[in-house]
Design brief:
Elements: E1 2-3, E2 12-13, H1 15-27, H2 33-42, H3 44-49, H4 62-70, H5 75-90, H6 107-111
Antiparallel strand pairs: 1-2
Length: about 110
């Protein structure tokens, strides 16, 4: 869904869809916005579930994501993830009884 607050000019993308896309980038540990865009085009069901349509070329460009991130405090997303984890633990939905180690590479740790 696109939104246009002023009613003039090209309509933009829904902020909710943009936030969902950033969450996907974080959760899937994608290295770049370009990788996120590739993921959305490669997985049209995922793209459509968050409000984009790669079949109609309805996926934001890198510059659109860049402008959105500049206008949005990314720390809010990390706080949201942390809050959801704690709520899941306190409600018993997420168990802390076991520790699982994922063999998926952590690109952020490797870059440091």
């Amino acid at each position: 869904m696109r939104s246009n607050a002023s009613g003039v000019g090209r309509t933009g993308y829904s902020p909710v869809s943009m936030i969902k896309a950033i969450l996907i980038k974080i959760i899937k540990n994608l290295n770049s916005t370009s990788d996120l865009i590739d993921e959305l085009y490669s997985n049209p069901y995922l793209a459509q579930a968050i409000g984009f349509d790669p079949i109609r070329n309805y996926v934001p460009a890198e510059s659109t994501f860049s402008m959105f991130r500049k206008s949005f405090d990314i720390n809010i997303i990390y706080l949201l993830i942390t809050d959801l984890l704690f709520k899941g633990i306190s409600s018993g939905f997420i168990s802390t009884e076991f520790l699982a180690v994922d063999s998926f590479p952590n690109h952020a740790a490797q870059a440091a």
